[in-house]
Design a protein that fits this description.
CATH architecture of the largest domain in chain A: 3-Layer(aba) Sandwich
Radius of gyration of chain A: 25 Å
Distance between the termini of chain A: 43 Å
Number of helices of chain A: 13
Largest sheet of chain A: 8 strands, mixed
CATH topology of the largest domain in chain A: Rossmann fold
Helix content of chain A: 40-55%
Oligomer: homodimer
CATH superfamily of the largest domain in chain A: NAD(P)-binding Rossmann-like Domain
Strand content of chain A: 15-25%
Largest interface: A-B, 133 and 133 residues
Strand order of the largest sheet of chain A: 3-2-1-4-5-6-7-8
Chain lengths: ~350, ~350
């Protein structure tokens, strides 16, 4: 067990997915975690799950992490600042500026508060979805403001580093406009696309493939939560939605007269813009252009993939990504291996010499 | 090798992803496949790849499958009908009504033509992406019209069934409005979302996670091809885009005044509509519920994944799916292993006993 940077107790308020995951992650490093929730049932589930212990009258937490829905975040943060006058308090809500404004307006002691936002989650919520490694390698935004001292704020850094996340500092304004773009507007767009399916003929919906599934997947999110998030970040979201509508109007105009001079070129420009935009998203994504893909055919029986991985390992090549594609009923799977470009040629020869069929 | 339903030769015109996959699938059932393409290089790649043989002067194909871009499909179909007066001709373009109209207008013999559309594809095109099992279990639409006899049309059924696809009959009109909804409009929506990223600050884009990746994935598609598809199916696409814009206006109005009476309820209704729509999409959704997921932590160095696969293989358990998740900068990868539910418990114990850390 690696030693923790945090030295005192951490009180987690709200035992949902994020609260439970924070508790599990900190417990794994030996931190004393106190779990609090308006629901005693949630507390006992989280405690049974290993996310911490129930609160006691003598608790003197060093740090309090508020993990409740956005609508009540400021109120709960203010109450915690009041109840624990020596603790630093943070929250993990997906909007940051409105919470800070509300706290300042209520006269709360923001010299002990910094808002944060871990960029991690799962489609389903609740304590039982919690995972100690939920934040591993994910960005965790600290929405810094100038009302808290560097020394006090450093306990937040300890929390983030103890959980294996990557600390990203931003103003609350920059955070809110960033998540509007990369999270809140995509949520609206996926929702509006999915809405078009509600009264579509079954024969049409039955033709759907992975493309439609991917575009609409996040539209399955909790409406109650998303109303709060969109409402609390309305201004940046609506600004981007209006730019989206401007482009949409262009496409509609072009398709209203597809044969008119210049309209195909306008369409092509929109589509090219989409190519450029999607290429800016970091990390792997179907294919990561930093790596070369090698596709190897693998028989569908135990041990075959192990033999392939063994041969790759013996070649001394590190796998950057690996995906097994397997059509239902097919006797052959395709292992898609991503490696550094300089390693690809040698690896293909090495594998071919060992009898592997390279598919492309 | 299962016996084929097709009894004569099949001529495939256009050796891209679909043409090559059709050739590979039919060759696997012993059908004589002739590969033709405007590019001699493409023909020789497809032939080397096992998708069929080059054309000969004595060819008398029973069936011709035209697999060329939508813009030139009708012209190539007409030329094939003319060149082979005893063959039935089909095409696989993603729009059906415009091709039929163009053929009728040109005076082509549509008593030997039916258009079809296999609902299968990959992000990347070209002959080397071809796969014999590309159509396995996927819907394949036959866009029936009353100008061809039942007897003649049945060879199309044989093609589809020989390739393991599921035959779906629709009018060309119903096909075009269906694919507008489940394929063409999602392409526009993903494109317009991805466009918003083109001039976004890097700090914002760097926070992106799987949600944005999924919503925008298909925006990486080929603009040249999509201009043709959207142009050829403009009317149904623009109809749905206008309904989408109507809903978008609602959301924008609500977010312009998020505190106004009734606006949160309007937002919630849009979001709920998205929940209902996404639930109508058939098939698996992220996780395949037939399998149990096991997540194993794997150190990021050569050979580790091989060692894991070796241990899984020794357990005698077959992997149904495998995915490596690896955040940029993290020293740990997460191998997500899907196995049959009855094998999961034993495998977790087996792996834990060999020192693997199971993450969830």
């Amino acid at each position: 067990m690696a030693e923790s940077r945090l030295t005192g107790s951490v009180r987690v308020v709200g035992a949902g997915l994020l609260g439970t995951s924070i508790g599990l992650g900190l417990r794994a490093r030996g931190v004393d975690v106190i779990v609090a929730d308006a629901s005693p049932t949630h507390v006992s589930i989280a405690v049974d799950y290993g996310a911490g212990r129930a609160a006691a009258a003598t608790d003197e937490p060093q740090l309090i992490v508020v993990c409740v829905p956005p609508d009540v975040t400021a109120r709960v943060v203010a109450a915690e600042l009041e109840a624990f006058p020596h603790a630093v308090v943070t929250d993990v809500a997906s909007v940051k500026l409105s919470v800070l404004h509300e706290l300042r307006a209520s006269g709360a002691d923001v010299s002990r508060y910094v808002g944060t936002h871990p960029m991690a989650g799962r489609e389903r919520g609740g304590p039982l979805q919690g995972r100690a490694d939920l934040f591993l390698g994910r960005p965790w935004v600290v929405a810094a403001h100038d009302g808290i001292s560097y020394q006090r704020g450093s306990v937040i850094d300890d929390l983030i580093l103890d959980l294996g996340a990557t600390l990203v500092e931003m103003t609350p304004e920059a955070h809110d406009s960033s998540v509007a773009l990369i999270s809140h507007v995509p949520q609206v767009v996926a929702t509006l696309m999915a809405r078009r399916l509600t009264d579509a003929p079954g024969a049409a919906v039955n033709l759907a493939g992975q493309g439609l599934r991917d575009v609409t997947r996040i539209a399955a999110g909790d409406p109650g939560l998303w109303v709060q998030i969109l409402g609390a970040n309305a201004q940046p979201v609506v600004g981007i939605l209006k730019q989206f509508r401007h482009d949409l109007d262009h496409v509609i105009d072009a398709l209203d007269a597809p044969e008119a001079v210049g309209n195909r070129r306008r369409l092509a420009e929109e589509l090219l813009g989409g190519n450029v935009g999607v290429a800016r998203i970091p990390g792997k994504h179907g294919q990561d252009t930093r790596y070369t893909q090698i596709v190897v055919m693998v028989d569908d029986r135990p041990g075959e993939l192990a033999r392939l991985m063994g041969d790759v390992g013996e070649a001394g090549v590190n796998l950057e990504d690996l995906r097994l594609e397997h059509s239902p009923g097919a006797q052959i799977g395709l292992a898609e291996i991503a490696v550094l470009p300089e390693a690809a040629g040698g690896l293909v020869d090495w594998l071919a010499a060992r009898g592997w069929r390279i598919a492309g």
